[in-house]
Amino acid sequence: MKLLVNGSAHSVEAPPDKPLLWVLREDLALAGTKYSCGIGRCGACTVHLDGVAAPSCMLPVVAVEGLAVTTIEGVSAGGPMTPVQQAWLDHGVSQCGYCQPGMIMSVLSLLAETPRPSAEAAAARLNVLCRCGTYPRVRKALGALFGP
Amino acid sequence: MSRSGRDGGSAEDGVWSVRDQTVSRRFVLCSGAVAGGLALGCFGAFGTTADGGIGKLAGAAPELTGRGAAGPWAWIRIDRDGDIAAYSAFTEIGQGIHTLVATIVAEELEVEPADVTVLSAPVDPRYVNPFFGDQATGGSTSARAALPALQTAAAGVRTMLLTAAAERWHCPPADCVPVGGAVRNTGTGAVLGYGALAGSASRLPSPRDVAVKPPGAWRLLGRPQARVDSPAKIAGAALYGIDIDLPGMLLGTVINAPVAGGRLLRVDAASSRALGGDAVVVPLDDAVVVLAGSFWAAERAASVLRPDWDLGPSAGLDSTAISARLRVALDGSAVVAEVTGDDAATAARVERTLSLDYEVPPLAHAAIEPPNATVRVTEERVEIWAPTQAPEAARTAVATALARPEADIDVETTLAGGSFGRNLDTRVIVQAALAARAAGRPVKLIWPRAQDLRHDTYRPPAACRIVVGLDRDGMPVRWEQRIAVPDLRAASRPFRHDERPPADADPEAVEGAVGQPYDVPYRRIDWADADVGLPVGWWRSVGHSFNAWFVEHAIDEIAHAAGLDPIGLRRLLLRAAPRHRAVLDALTAMWPAPPAKGRFRGTAVHASFGSVVAQSAEISVKAGNLIVHHVNCAVDCGIALDPDAVAAQMQGGIVFGLTAALHGSVSVLRGQVQEANFDACRLLTLADSPTIDVRIVAPAEALQNVALHEALQGLGGVGEAGVPPIAPAVCNAVLAATGRAVRRLPIRLP
User: Fold this and answer.
1) Strands B84-88 and B116-120: what pairing?
2) In this structure, are residues B259 and B310 in contact, taking their beta carbons and an 8 Å threshold?
3) Which of B126, B593, B595, B633 has the fewest Cβ atoms nearer than 10 Å?
């Protein structure tokens, strides 16, 4: 199977119904995308498919053939940090950090929308669960990124 | 870790004390050479502080010979290229302890926190948490336990580097000053990097007299620091337990006995092979581990297995029965935990009695990283990688399970994706070890989410009755409180049908109920052990998580019944508790104006883990829907070593406690926990979370005039202290809004 991940073509030997999450983690050694709920509910496994955020834990890998897959490792590879990551640092968001790759992928996708949603609309649509309770800082970071 | 050179001066090392004896910190500093660099350790023998803050002595006096002399005991290491590493005996579970460890070391070595690499300490008696006598992370102790030893070790390293430089330059030691990872000669302007000095410093005797910086000279501590682990975490580069990857490793999933206390009778592995995979089925006493080349393949193979179980003694248990057991315990025999005041004299003053019943359900930890462990078993070693809070207990458990000496077992503690007490449970590590031995290959075992939520060590369910006697002014003169909750001292053995009732109260069952700050003339706290048939464990803020709700909601119920202002009543009753009153005052100052129409506020104040925290929640109720709009929080944690980390822990604690108050419940049917994932086990979302403001009561400026021992004595934990007040604050707001108290959590409005 041919996959395009983070701008590189990969040839992967995996069952077609193996979820993308586990192909990324186990076959491509891209462990930044996290497993948590396995039912597409918590958002820890969020990646971009052609630039749009989607959970990867239930998505058969065969479904992403021909799509550009981007993981957290690919958003700023070798280059400067994305504005979202910078805002996360500026507002000291991360605690345990486990949900943060998924959160950052989701916010990057929202930020790329035209027209850009308001901070409040972005917060309402950011469904990544954070058990550490970083939400107050996420709100501040969203405020800085999306404006009032 | 390779060793070269001689062990520096260990034989001559005596016991060295901080000059300020009131802290009664007694440390042994011990240095050695490590690969041309310097390693320095500092351990043991914590005394007690004046307020009893630090408890047990950390075992016997450390041995200074053998494996430990210059090896894995080091707190700080400087390599010959100048790299600085500090060992954290505490697991980074999100609370920021790695950043604090780096900050403490950077403070004394005059570098920046980002210059210090934080490594996880191996299991060793020298890294024992002095609060527990065990190497573990919990009880909001990490900062309090880390500060003294690391400060001393780091100051020792600085002293040795300065001495080595003075010897090199044949100059007075006073001419040598640390600057940016180097020592500068103020006389000549010459500069030598720490790396260049580390080798010769390692050959010096360990210092007997080092000066730890007083708080007034702190440059980093007491000020907000950027977390050292954030850059890796936001880049997806941070390594959690679940990310460990070993050559030849198998991935595993588990099916635990559906009912806690159940046993595996048999499992037919043939069905999983029918899938055509390469799955390996490992039967254990109370679980089946399934291994394959990928976690997904292991999960698929496990999904077709139909193991036969003996479901054990809890097979008939359900949530109603758990509640019934709590109520039976509440009415049964109990142990007195605390009695103060004059029973007869106060009884004569009672004009009116309130009897207030409360109940809380069991709760899951629901850390976002599920439990996992990676183990490699060879003839020589057993190597464990896990996001554990209890590496020492894990080592002991694996040694027992594999019948291997503890000395053969290495535990590498990884970053944990949350934890909140979850990873004090070592079962996943033992299962991974047994599976690795059975398979003859390294194994990474991950508990899928359903196994995590259905086989947690739950926050115990608890019931409480508070009987309050009010005098003719409506003031409480008697407070009789009985709490029924399982004995957490028996958390490792949840099924104990044959044991006599405990003779004394479980301190964690009554924490937050005993030692109340309120001046009530007669108070009696009883504890009734309740065997609820469910495995229980330590959940962020433990007994405080329910006792703060019982006490603080009751205070508002009293105020409501007596027609008094709840905050005014607290102020009156806190006449002998100035610290609580100051925190309450700071909190009320955050909200000078009354709430808008349709908005209601509730307040609670609670001391836990050495800190006092007050919180106010502003809510509205619309069509039976409770919305928490905003929370204010004031905290006195003594010296805030990192104000930003304190604020983060308060915010996180509030969100954690709100999840419990609004959604938290684990339900049991036919012995089995029903909630299998985050659809049924609801966590607060960003959209539902309130805005939160945090005020730290003791400002950083206060550091200027504080002696080191005072700073240490006043230090409170913050990882858990933000959780307890939020449930009563919200329930008190509900009482203000609806006139009705909340009898059980989670809150369900009529």
Assistant:
1) parallel
2) no
3) B593
**Domain encompassing residue A65:** 2-72
Pick from A92, A98, A126: which is nearest to B418 by CB?
A: A98
CA–CA distance, B430 with B150 (Å, rounded to integer): 32
Judgement on whether residues A57 and A87 belong to the same structural domain of the protein: no
What SS3 class is residue B594? coil
> What is the pLDDT at residue B10?
30
Q: Is the ipTM value over 0.95, yes or no?
A: yes
Contacts of B644 in chain A (CB under 8 A): 92
Cβ within 8 Å, pair A96-B235: no
Amino acid at site B77? R
CATH code for position A141: 1.10.150.120
Give residue B500's pLDDT: 63
B294 vs A22, A76, A88: nearest CB = A22
Whether the CB of B95 is below 8 Å from some CB of chain A: the reply is yes
Considering the domain boundaries, does residue A78 fall inside one? Answer: no
Choose, out of B233, B365, B456, the residue to mutate when testing the contact with A (most A CBs < 10 Å). Answer: B233
Alpha helix segments (H runs only) across B625-725: 643-662, 708-713
pLDDT value for B144: 87
- For B686, which of A34, A92, A135 is closest by C-beta distance? A135
Shortest CA gap B226–chain A (Å) = 7
Minimum-distance CB partner of B651 among A89, A123, A133: A133
Domain total for chain A?
2
Contact B295 A134 (CB under 8 A): no
Instruction: Please indicate whether, in this complex, the C-beta atoms of A94 and B233 are within 8 angstroms of each other.
Output: yes
Question: Is A130 in CB contact (< 8 Å) with chain B?
Answer: yes
| Residue A36: inside a domain | yes
- Kindly determine whether residue B234 and residue A104, on different chains, have CB atoms separated by under 8 Å: yes
d(Cα B466, Cα B572) in Å, to the nearest integer? 20
Q: Which residue stretches of chain B have pLDDT < 50?
A: 1-25, 44-72, 494, 496-498
% of chain A with per-residue pLDDT over 90: 97
Same domain, A63 and A90: no
Residues of chain A with Cβ-Cβ distance to B420 below 8 Å are 131
Give the residue ranges of DSSP H helices in A10-130: 20-22, 83-90, 100-111, 119-125
Pairwise CA distance, residues B274 & B252, whole Å: 18
**Of the candidates B471, B454, B747, which has an alpha carbon nearest to the alpha carbon of residue B627?**
B747
Which residues in chain B touch residue A135, judged by CB atoms under 8 angstroms apart? Answer: 651, 655, 684, 686, 689
pLDDT tens readout for residues A33-88: 999 999 999 999 999 999 999 999 999 999 999 999 999 999 987 889 999 999 99
Contact B449 A32 (CB under 8 A): no
Which residues make Cβ contacts (< 8 Å) with residue B585, sequence separation at least 6? none
* Co-location of A88 and A142 in the same domain: yes
The answer to whether A119 contacts chain B (CB < 8 Å) is no
Q: List, for residues B199-226, the tens digit of each pLDDT value.
A: 899 888 888 778 889 988 999 999 999 9
- Residues 20-39 of chain A whose Cβ lies under 8 A from any Cβ of chain B: 22, 26, 29-39
Summarised one tens digit per residue, pLDDT across range B592-606 is 999 999 999 999 999
* A13 and A59 part of one domain: yes
The domain boundary residue, chosen from A52, A72, A92:
A72
| Domains, chain B, ordered by start | 10-234 (3.30.365.10), 241-310+371-446 (3.30.365.10), 319-362+458-738 (3.30.365.10)
pLDDT, position B276: 63
- Overall average pLDDT of the A92-119 stretch: 97
**Do the Cβ atoms of A92 and B226 come within 8 Å?**
yes
Distance from CA of B237 to the nearest CA of A (A): 6
Q: Is B89 exposed, middle or buried (0-12, 13-18, 19+ CB in 10 A)?
A: buried
pLDDT at residue B269 in the model: 83
Establish if A77 belongs to a structural domain.
Answer: no
The CATH number of the domain holding residue A32 is 3.10.20.30
Q: Is B733 helix (H, G, I), strand (E, B) or coil?
A: helix
Please list every residue in chain B whose beta carbon sits closer than 8 Å to the beta carbon of residue A76: 235
